[in-house]
Amino acid sequence: MESIWTRGMLVAAAILVIRIQLLAFTGAYVIGVNYGLNGDNLPPPEQVIDLYGRCQINFVRLFEPRHEVLEALRGRPQLVSLGTKNEEIQSIASSQQASDEWVKTHVVPFVDNVNIGYITVGNEVIPGTNAQYVGQAINNILNSLNSYGITKQIKLTTVLPGTSLASSYPPSAGAFTNEAAAVLKDIAQNLWHRGFPIMINVYPYFAYASDPSHISLDYALFQSKDPVVRDGPYLYYNLFDAMVDAFHSALEKIDVPNVTLAISESGWPSAGNEPYTSIENAQKYNKNLMDHVLGGKGTPRRPGQTFDTFLFEMFNENQKSAGVEQNFGFFYPNMQPVYPFWPC
Description:
The chain is α/β, with parallel strands linked by helices. The chain is built from 11 helices and 12 strands.
């Protein structure tokens, strides 16, 4: 017999997909799921993309241009975020010819019937040794897209980790490290002028698990009934908003307040660090995050501002580090759900 909790989750999933379909139809913003490939027992890409379709997941993020996945996406409706490899960034930035070759190899053969919406140049490389190349690599790829006559709008961006911030509490004190700020001002201004967002990885789980004596589970899971953090005029009922607004504050401090954000990764592991990880916590976090984003609430500093969001991630991947890193997936490699969430 199904438990009350399971029945409740199935009902919630059905309601959720209706909301996703309505919002996708309006084109307002998109919810997606990261598709990682760090496993030796994952299903073939064609089956995975079929699973995305059955589950009404309309946005796929790829960390690198895997052609077998792009082939599986031909003729599919899913919007795709396509990543460069981090080790390619210096070459792309240093040579327009290398950038042209990257676009010729990984974009041109697919762009007519794969719905590429983003190209991410660098995953968590700012701050770091490749940070200095990101801005020029973005410009070179834009030039390459133009030179090949690709007229559909593809947004160029980069993905920032939480470690790009020197401070994040309270959110109004959010500020980039000196190393990150040195390169981000020009990048953020360029993206803002073109109408492209900056992507950020946001993980309330890691903040909570590292300091559970000061961060409540309800605050991390979007369940607080009263404001937990009062930051001047801004009241925070959940940790996710506080973390996102720390990035907003940091961007204000480098004089690029209007560039928008997109969430490249956010999720909660279902196992690997008990009691902080559990199937129930993972399901609650992801459901409440979805409700929050689809509700169009924005954050206290940016009320009503919507943002594309990728949940992390599609599968449990057995070639990642043991522990929580192997347990962020919605599905096991046999494509059975880890917990009820998607209506498929």
